[in-house]
Specification:
rod-shaped; five-stranded mixed β-sheet; Nucleotidyltransferase, domain 5; 2 domains; alpha/beta; 209 residues
């Protein structure tokens, strides 16, 4: 996003000009890269206040910060998709930083990221959602831990190989039947499948399961 600030001078520490049309310069700031430049306003001597508007349009800015802007100039800016923000004061740097803090700019002119109130609310909301999701998953995780213990304690390799004895067709059929009968969620299926592979059950049976 590019913004223009009416300025009394060519530097970021210059004072914000009170009137857009009579501002000696427009400071153009790219809020993405934080690059800036000063452009002289041909109409600052009172020869034509609308020249500052033409200059802002020519520079393809999206926002103009100034102390005051006439209704006519504002109408032309809005017609060209440019937002006007009145009441800017202090230095150009302060005006840009204030706009960045209140709106969507990610970084101020000092190179530091600004966290707005809306951002804090979104972060808090995301943390709450994460905590709720973890709370929902906790019983599943506990169940998986118990399931792994039960498999290792009560299901031996000999028992598994007595059911899945290496025949491609029968192992596939048995795996599919057990997978459709035994209840549970996908996580449990992965756990059981992993235990089956560790006990030399064929991949056909595990895949069908």
């Amino acid at each position: 996003m590019k913004i223009a600030v009416s300025s009394e001078g060519q530097e970021l520490n210059s004072k914000v000009a009170n009137r857009l049309g009579l501002a000696p310069y427009l400071i153009i700031v790219d809020l993405e890269t934080m690059e800036h430049k000063a452009v002289e306003n041909p109409g600052h001597a009172g020869t034509g206040g609308m020249q500052a508007v033409v200059l802002a349009i020519k520079e393809n800015v999206q926002v103009v910060l100034t102390g005051y802007c006439s209704p006519v100039a504002e109408a032309y800016l809005k017609k060209n998709g440019i937002r006007i923000v009145r009441g800017a004061k202090g230095t150009v740097k302060n005006a840009v930083d204030e706009y960045a803090r209140r709106h969507k700019a990610p970084k101020n002119l000092s190179g530091h990221f600004s966290i707005t109130g809306n951002t804090r609310e979104k972060v808090a909301e995301a943390m709450i959602r994460t905590a709720r999701q973890f709370g929902k998953m906790l019983p599943i995780l506990i169940g998986v831990i118990f399931l792994m213990g039960l498999l290792k304690a009560f299901v031996s390799k000999k028992m598994l190989l007595s059911v899945f004895f290496g025949n491609v067709i029968w192992d596939t059929v048995k795996g599919a039947c057990l997978g459709s009968i035994l209840p549970g969620n996908p996580i449990n299926s992965y756990i059981i499948g992993g235990e089956m592979l560790e006990n030399d059950v064929s991949l056909f049976a595990v895949t069908a399961f």
